[in-house]
Design a protein that fits this description.
Largest sheet: 6 strands, mixed
Strand order of the largest sheet: 2-1-14-13-11-12
Structural class: alpha/beta
Number of helices: 24
Strand content: 5-15%
Radius of gyration: 23 Å
Length: 545
């Protein structure tokens, strides 16, 4: 297989369960679902910014004997890379072992790269724990592990800039001092992270924290830069969260500190979806006993109402990928895919979230993080195989299409280990033609690749399921980094280091790097101890350090 050159795509708490798992545990009754969904739809503000009309979505069918059947050009382009070029795999294998490097990559990485990385892990036992594909938080933990346990001398971070920043910071906090390299010498941005880097976000924090006499806590999504975390921490006490632990963070913080004013940002959709969850609990009159036993032992109906009243959400922050799951895509899901399991990341617009949450009440869907989505699909396939069923399980993937690589690997492993003959169909809620042409690119015989021909990374033909920023990480760029390390090209490698906007700087007399890492450490304490640290509580209540 010919490699896709980088220029073709370059334009483009351990203490918690996912919100869908929490919904299933709550044992909601179906009669409450319709009313809840209706109320939630009234709150939804998501609209498509272009014509998303489409009758059928592209999909990939994962079958027995490791078979892959793509349906539609978009899916064909995804599937093309699931069986990677063995020469490319071998070249990287030799290079990584020679240079003693490790790789951490995000689930949203381009399918071509993920296919290569999965093959690399399987190609040599020495590489199995030196290559990790995970969400933003886990990437840092994997980097620490491969440095301490496997002794790697450097780490390549395949993601956007805030991820490499975070990986580097977590390594340093664990007393691991090795270089972290980005795939591109250019800035690899993120629309969501950038929405918190302007004056508007700082002004919002200042205004909301000063609007009440009550103590305030800023809960910031991990998908932001260290500079944003540092600046935010200088304005108001701040703790990081992930899409997996955000709900438990809100519940625990509001339990430990009554009348706490909570500022959530910058992801507007996620914040509004959390408000929806709390609204639904209150609207359906959960008793204090039910709340205490099934949601949080320290909460009552009155305290949940207080939390909902005090939860403020930044109104101007969105991921451009999740933003594009607009009304027409949602309508197609409702009309054509009612029999499917529905998955949705917490960042998606309200209408998409509503469908997945409604189906999660019957265990026919999941809302949560990328790990939650992968876990749900894996569980459903395992259940089918254990019951010796032969069926096609259909899943609508309401998040970035890049994570299909991890899904394919998980499903194939289950079918192979059990000998089951079932199939899993992964459906991409975009137009079948949401691709970009490579006509005129003599380096590849691929007619189309997942993505777009221009703009922000979304096809005017109907939807967006790939991140243009993530696609700045290419196979060629990865090989180039390995070659540069092998050749000792320190001058060129310097441009691939994570952004360094905080070193040597102070904010309010505090080291900026320490301030930027503080919110992450607060989160890690919550994940391990199940409560806010004494230092954070003191900071919140006294409003002083």
């Amino acid at each position: 297989m010919n490699r896709l050159v980088s220029s073709a795509g370059a334009r483009r708490l351990a203490s918690s369960s996912s919100s869908s798992a929490f919904l299933r545990q709550l044992g909601w009754k179906q009669q409450s679902t319709v009313a809840a969904a209706s109320a939630m739809r009234q709150l939804s503000t998501a609209t498509a910014t272009y014509d998303q009309s489409v009758d059928a979505f592209p999909s990939i069918v994962i079958g027995p004997d490791r078979s892959i059947e793509p349906q539609g050009p978009f899916a064909e382009a995804q599937a093309q890379f699931l069986d990677p070029d063995p020469d490319a795999v071998e070249e990287l294998r030799q290079g990584l072992l020679k240079t003693n490097m490790g790789i951490v990559a995000h689930y949203y990485m381009d399918v071509e790269l993920q296919g290569i990385l999965q093959a690399l892990k399987a190609s040599d036992p020495r590489l199995e724990s030196r290559i990790g594909i995970a969400d933003s938080l886990k990437m840092g933990e994997l980097a620490v592990s491969m440095c301490k346990d496997d002794g790697v001398d450097s780490v390549i971070c395949l993601g956007v800039d805030f991820m490499s920043e975070s990986v580097q910071a977590i390594l340093k906090k664990n007393d691991v001092h090795v270089p972290v390299y980005r795939a591109s010498a250019k800035s690899i941005g993120c629309s969501l992270a950038e929405s918190a880097e302007g004056e508007a976000y700082r002004a919002w924090l200042q205004t909301e924290s000063e609007s009440t006499e009550n103590p305030s806590l800023h809960v910031i999504y991990i998908n932001t830069s260290l500079e944003t975390k540092a600046t935010s921490s200088s304005i108001v006490p701040t703790i990081t969260c992930t899409s997996s632990n955000v709900l438990q963070t809100l519940l625990q913080a509001s339990h430990q500190i009554p009348n706490l004013n909570i500022l959530y940002g910058p992801d507007t959709y996620m914040g509004e979806n959390l408000q929806r969850l709390l609204d639904t609990i209150l609207e359906h009159g959960w008793s204090d006993e039910k709340i205490a036993s099934e949601l949080h032992a320290g909460h009552t109906q009155a305290s949940i109402a207080e939390l909902r009243k005090n939860l403020k959400v930044f109104p101007q922050g969105n991921c451009i990928v999740h933003h594009m799951f607009g009304s027409q895509v949602v309508q197609t899901v409702k009309e054509q895919y009612d029999d499917c399991y529905m998955t949705a990341h917490l960042e998606v617009p309200g209408e998409m979230f509503d469908i997945a949450m409604e189906r999660s009440l019957e265990d026919r869907g999941v809302v949560g993080s990328t790990s939650d989505i992968l876990g749900f699909i894996t569980r459903k396939v395992q259940e089918s195989a254990k019951a010796n069923k032969v069926e096609r399980l259909r899943f609508v993937l309401g998040t970035e299409a890049g994570m299909v690589t991890s899904i394919v690997q998980s499903v194939q492993n289950i079918l192979q280990q059990t000998g089951n003959r079932s199939e899993a169909e992964i459906i991409f809620p975009v137009s079948s033609d949401a691709v970009m042409s490579t006509d005129g690119d003599s380096t590849t015989d691929l007619a189309v690749v997942p993505g777009v021909s221009g703009g922000e990374g979304c096809s005017t033909a109907g939807g967006c399921a790939t991140c243009p920023f993530m696609k700045m990480n290419s196979l060629d760029a990865l090989q180039d980094i390995v070659n540069m390390v092998d050749n000792g090209d320190s001058l060129r490698l310097k441009a691939h280091l994570p952004p360094d906007r905080l070193s040597g700087k102070q904010i309010s007399g505090i080291d900026a790097m320490d301030l930027g890492s503080e919110a992450i450490l607060y989160m890690r304490h919550l994940m391990t101890s199940k409560e806010l640290s004494a230092d954070l509580v003191k900071h919140i209540v006294s409003k002083e350090r």
